[in-house]
Each structure stands twice: as structure tokens, then as C-alpha cells.
Design brief:
Blueprint lengths: L1 H4 L5 E7 L5 E7 L2 E5 L2 H9 L11 E7 L13 E2 L1 H20 L2 E8 L3 E2 L10 E4 L3 H5 L9 E5 L4 E6 L4 H4 L8 H4 L15
Parallel strand pairs: 4-6, 5-7, 6-8
Antiparallel strand pairs: 1-2, 3-10, 4-9, 9-10
């Protein structure tokens, strides 16, 4: 997997169980995807998931967890128990707070099929099940070991990074001197369903 750790190659990995619990690992191109997605639609779909209120002018960062992801032996069973969620939130809380202070709305979504012991009606909840797999089918179409992140700006520009990353480090792509490198002035508007590297 040393190729998979070399960020210069721009690869992403997916690991899964085959017959008789044999593990398989495959590398793919496409660590980054960029495109355009209707911000209002993303906002509405997020708000359907629970106690989410996305401010109209905030950039959004979504951290996405895939079903059957072999990133961690703890979640090979596709279950996120309450104590596992508490531990993950303990790590993410300072990252979430820092992003919120920069007017970036942060949320963690889990592919439908994962068992998630969250509290969707709590105003403080930010872990939600992607109940209808809207985000899995439209943004996170390529399962990747250790999840993916998406940044969506109010103008619809959307950047997805596949593979292990921290949300705060991923958010550095939103900086004024970095973001335009992904979205050059000569790039035509393109729906994310026609992804490009």
C-alpha cells in the first residue's frame, strides 16, 4: 500500500471482504473530484436528515463514512455504538468548532446500511445517517477506504477528496489562494455527475 500513501500519485484505495472473508485492496485514480452542485439542494437534503440548520452563506464540509469500509477494525461490523461515537466526537469537536468559527458548516454523514447510535433530534447532533443515500448516490459515488470529504461553496463549486484526511486540513483547500487552483476561470460549469480529476 506504499503507492496508496504517495499523495503525488493522486490515488485512492478501496478495501473489502470477498468470499471466505478474504481481504482485497485496490488502488484507483481520482483522489480529487471537482464540479458544480446546487447549493440549495444540498442544504435542503442535509436539513431533512435531522436537526440541521445550515446558514445560507456558509461553505459546507461533509465528512462521509462508507459501509463495509475496512479502514478501522473497530467498524468492520458496520456498527457505530454510542461509545464509539463519543470517542470520534471527542476527536472531532475542536475541529468542528474551529470550522464553525470560520463560517464553515461541518457535518458527518454515514452511508445507509451502517448502524448509527446517534441522536438525530438533538440540536447539538452532527452525525447523521444518509437515510436515502442521496449523498452517496450524488456526491460520494466512489467508496474509498477511510472515507471522503466534500466542500461545497454557496456558488455551487464543489470539491471532493477521497481517502483519509482530517476535515480541518481538508478545509485549507477553501483558502483564497488555493481554491481557484481547482476552479480555473476557464473551467466551464459542470455537474458532478460528470466528474473529472
Amino acid at each position: 500500500m506504499s503507492k496508496g500513501r504517495n499523495k503525488k500519485l493522486g490515488l485512492r484505495a478501496w478495501s473489502w471482504h470477498g468470499a471466505k472473508r478474504t481481504q482485497f485492496h485496490k488502488l484507483y485514480t481520482g483522489r480529487y473530484y471537482r464540479g458544480y452542485f446546487e447549493y440549495g439542494l444540498i442544504k435542503r437534503e442535509l436539513e431533512k436528515l435531522g436537526s440541521i440548520q445550515v446558514p445560507d452563506s456558509s461553505s459546507i464540509i461533509i465528512e462521509y463514512y462508507y459501509k463495509d469500509d475496512l479502514c478501522s477494525s473497530e467498524h468492520k461490523d458496520n456498527k457505530w455504538a454510542a461509545d464509539e461515537i463519543r470517542r470520534r466526537k471527542s476527536f472531532l469537536k475542536p475541529i468542528k468548532d474551529s470550522l464553525n468559527n470560520k463560517d464553515i458548516y461541518f457535518v458527518a454523514l454515514f452511508e445507509n446500511g451502517l448502524k448509527l447510535r446517534n441522536r438525530p433530534k438533538s440540536k447539538d447532533e452532527y452525525f447523521f445517517l444518509d437515510k436515502n443515500n442521496f449523498f452517496r448516490n450524488n456526491l460520494f459515488t466512489t467508496p474509498t477506504t477511510c472515507g471522503s470529504h466534500a466542500a461545497i461553496k454557496p456558488n455551487g463549486q464543489t470539491l471532493i477528496e477521497n481517502g483519509e484526511q482530517r476535515a480541518d486540513r481538508f478545509s485549507s483547500n477553501l483558502k483564497d489562494d488555493i481554491w481557484p487552483l481547482f476552479f480555473q476561470a476557464n473551467t466551464s460549469k459542470q455537474d458532478l455527475s460528470k466528474k473529472e480529476n
